[in-house]
Amino acid sequence: MWILQRLFTKLLKVSLLKITLIVLGVILLSSVIIKTLEPETFPRYLDAVWWTMTTVVTVGYGDYSPSSDLGRIFTMVLLYTVGIGAMGIIIGKIFDSLTLYKKMKEEGKLAYKGKDHYILIGSSKDKLRNVVEEILNSNKKCDIVIVDHSNESPVQHDRVHFVSGNPAEEEILMQANILESKSVAVFTDDRIEFPEYADGKTLLIASRVEHISKQSNRNIYTIAEIMKEKHIALFEHANIDEFILSNESVSKLMAQAAIFPGSSKLFKQLLSNMEGENLYKIEKKPHWTTYKQAAMELFDLGATLISDGHALDIARKHNEEIPEGTEMFVICDEATYKKI
Fold first, then answer.
1. Do 118 and 183 meet the contact criterion of CB atoms below 8 Å apart?
2. Using an 8 Å Cβ cutoff, are 180 and 113 in contact?
3. Is the rRNA-binding keyword given for this protein (predicted)?
4. Number of structural domains found in the chain
5. 263 domain residue, yes or no
6. What is the SS3 assignment for 97?
7. Which of 41-50, 251-260, 261-270 has the lowest mean pLDDT?
8. Strand 327-332 vs strand 278-283: parallel, antiparallel, or unpaired?
9. What angle, rounded to 10 degrees, do the helices at 45-56 and 84-106 form?
10. What CATH number did the domain enclosing 45 receive?
11. Is residue 255 part of a domain?
12. DSSP designation for 111
């Protein structure tokens, strides 16, 4: 027993790969030995391997078993001690590895290896939940990576991966596989009281994203939430692709609702994929020459063309030619969008 204790103590320190190779070696060697000892009981090597496997995993179907004294002694001495013990160590190491993987994933210490995902940085739990719900509702197959300073993911979902750390550091953003992402959304840190400091932190993170984009010669689409409209010029200087005004947008929406009662319901439909008609992006079709031609065809299909991706003045330039590569926005339901 003392020898076995020393043996298993050493095996516990061996890596999972090495212990697996050792067990496979023991299984193959035992199969050869038992077939040599009892060729009539085990006429084929496959029968010997089958019996060895069912023995070490303690299943023991009983369809094969040693009949000679030498075969039974070999089974008790080698397989019942070394074989079953080593298999128990493998199973234990597998469970330990799964537990460690789950722990590291929950704590945001694992790198994300997928691509075409959305990266969300910062913000409160409630805001992140709403954003995650909207993205997952509009794209059933996408993944989302949340990057935050916290020690656990603010949103629990099978398609949400969490990376813990400072999002202003390149190493953390690379851990989120930023180069393969569809877009990066940087939210205002709600824990910061002063809007100047909050926008300063957002600008620092967004600038890091743009730095990685230039350094890697990749186009990373960056969206930033801004507290003060007067700070937009600073974000434009940093080549941020898109800006969302936080508090001021809510104030302006309230003002529009007061001036034009019911208008907030229209904005609500546009802002949510779960409310009525939705906003979709489409590409120019080869036979579309002017905006009017595109708008009329889309209208017949049940969609309304509202923008060329830059402005809402489509109606005033209906006779202008549509440049190649233009990405346009329409309002329609999902069924119409699929037809388009």
1. yes
2. no
3. no
4. 3
5. no
6. helix
7. 251-260
8. antiparallel
9. 60
10. 1.10.287.70
11. no
12. P
How far apart are the C-alpha atoms of 121 and 165, rounded to whole Å?
Answer: 10
Query: Same domain for 177 and 93?
Result: no
Is 101 part of any domain? yes
> Residue 3, CB half-sphere, CA atoms under 13 Å: how many?
3
Instruction: Specify whether the CB–CB gap between 156 and 222 falls below 8 A.
Output: no
Mean pLDDT over 71-100 rounds to: 72
pLDDT tens figures, 7-60 = 545 555 666 677 778 778 878 888 888 888 888 888 898 988 888 888 777 666
Assess whether 69 and 37 both reside in one domain: yes
Angle, alpha carbons 8-13-14 (nearest 5°): 95
Q: Are residues 137 and 41 in the same domain?
A: no
Dist. CA 218–CA 231, nearest whole Å: 26
Q: What is the full DSSP assignment across 212-270? A: HHHHHT---EEEEEES-GGGHHHHHHTT-SEEEESHHHHHHHHHHHHHSTTHHHHHHHH
Instruction: Give the model's pLDDT for residue 176.
Output: 93
Residue 258 domain-assigned (yes or no): no
- Do 236 and 142 share a structural domain? yes
pTM for the complete prediction? 0.62
The length of the chain in residues reads 340
Same domain, residue pair 228 and 334: no
Residue 158 is predicted with a pLDDT of: 86
